[in-house]
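I'll show a record.
***
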Amino acid sequence: MIIKGNIHLFGDDIDTDAIIPGAYLKTTDPKELASHCMAGIDEKFSTKVKDGDIIVAGENFGCGSSREQAPISIKHTGIKAVVAESFARIFYRNCINIGLIPITCEGINEQIQNLKDGDTIEIDLQNETIKINSMMLNCGAPKGIEKEILDAGGLVQYTKNKLKK
């Protein structure tokens, strides 16, 4: 599968409090959460996202609390995938569980200064490569059970599919 979209850049140590600040956790409505996505960094982020866009970030993306609302808010803005040098472990797993594709890319942090919001990124999940402008990088796409869960659309749908069988 190939994913292509516009980049939204973020740096290192983007924590879940910045992704969806606590003041906005009074709802469970995914669209309402999405309207406040990244409000700890950029209040207008959700209005800039187009369906299929991709976040590119540095190290330790999703650190902080284990709140599942963080990847839910990202997914429901229309973001298709998050590419980062590294992820906080629980955030990574929450992405898998809700159907947001997390992709590790060693070396992306060094390339961030050469990128800008709106650049086009193309991710080849099968061959585990990323193309940004004229640059080609290797990446780590989810495999095994993680890929099966993502292919089903998240853990809930994966479980429903298994129970039907």
